[in-house]
Write a structure and sequence with these properties.
Blueprint: E1 8-11, H1 17-28, E2 32-37, H2 41-53, E3 58-62, H3 70-82, E4 86-91, H4 106-127, E5 131-140, H5 153-174, E6 179-185, H6 199-208, H7 217-228, E7 239-242
Parallel strand pairs: 1-2, 1-4, 2-3, 4-5, 5-6, 6-7
């Protein structure tokens, strides 16, 4: 049974999309949730309000993860709130940009790696003192890390890096009893994926999936809640595909 009663969780990029759904799912199974946001304060507050209205515990925390010091600043805020233990870290915040190789700029490339790779790497580093035995770290990877999907080469490279970090972090942190995994969604209907909302996007998505519907954030959140819980206590170093059977 998936339960996180008494656990504390930080979900980055939790004001909308997969992060929002993950925050709500973790709260539903009993976790106290820190709802991180970068710019969408009102949306983050609505997530907190929804969790509290259902009897859960939540707080919003702000940090700009595109800033080189963003991870350090966020970790400091989290440690002030949770004290000496964080049970669950969902490093979900990310950005995407579709562009051909010719169109991709150095600025685009650096921005993608700053938010999608540098920020979660150093967030784990800064939170190491409060990740204890039984803690679970969950990254957000992507179908694009292991299959060519559209003009996403630079974005896909960031998610390939995440899959690599999962293995290294799982091995390094395993001696402390900390598990590290990732979920790899396919196409999900979120604000970041306007493609999925078009007729062409829907047709493309259904054409490459075994399950014939477009994923919603809740479909991914359930897998995150599972990996965060003790039900997944013997799962570490894995990237779990949650993509409706895409590109089989």
């Amino acid at each position: 049974m998936t339960t996180c009663n008494g656990k504390t969780a930080l979900v980055t990029g939790a004001s909308r999309g997969i992060g929002r759904a993950a925050a709500l799912a973790l709260a539903k199974v009993g976790a106290q949730v820190l709802v991180h946001y970068g710019r969408n304060a009102a949306e983050a507050r609505s997530v907190v309000d929804q969790i509290r209205a259902a009897g859960g515990r939540a707080e919003a925390v702000e940090a700009d993860l595109s800033d080189p010091q963003g991870a350090r600043k966020l970790a400091a805020k989290v440690r002030e709130i949770v004290g000496d233990r964080l049970d669950i870290l969902v490093a979900n915040a990310g950005i995407s940009k579709a562009a051909t190789i010719e169109e991709t700029t150095v600025e685009d490339f650096d921005a993608l790696f700053a938010v999608n790779v540098r920020a979660p790497y150093f967030l784990v580093q800064q939170l190491l003192p409060i990740l204890k035995e039984g803690s679970s770290v969950i990254f957000t990877s992507s179908l694009a890390a292991h299959a060519a999907v559209g003009n996403l080469s630079a974005y896909a490279a960031t998610k390939g890096a995440i899959d690599t970090l999962v293995k290294h972090f799982a091995l390094i942190l395993g001696s402390s009893g900390v598990r590290v995994n990732a979920v790899a969604p396919g196409v999900v209907e979120t604000d970041m994926s306007g493609f999925a909302k078009t007729d062409a996007g829907r047709d493309f998505t259904l054409g490459m999936q075994a399950l014939k519907r477009v994923a919603q954030p809740d479909d991914i959140a359930g897998a995150i809640a599972f990996l965060a819980s003790d039900a997944a206590r013997w799962v570490s170093g894995d990237t779990l595909r949650v993509d409706g059977g895409s590109k089989l």
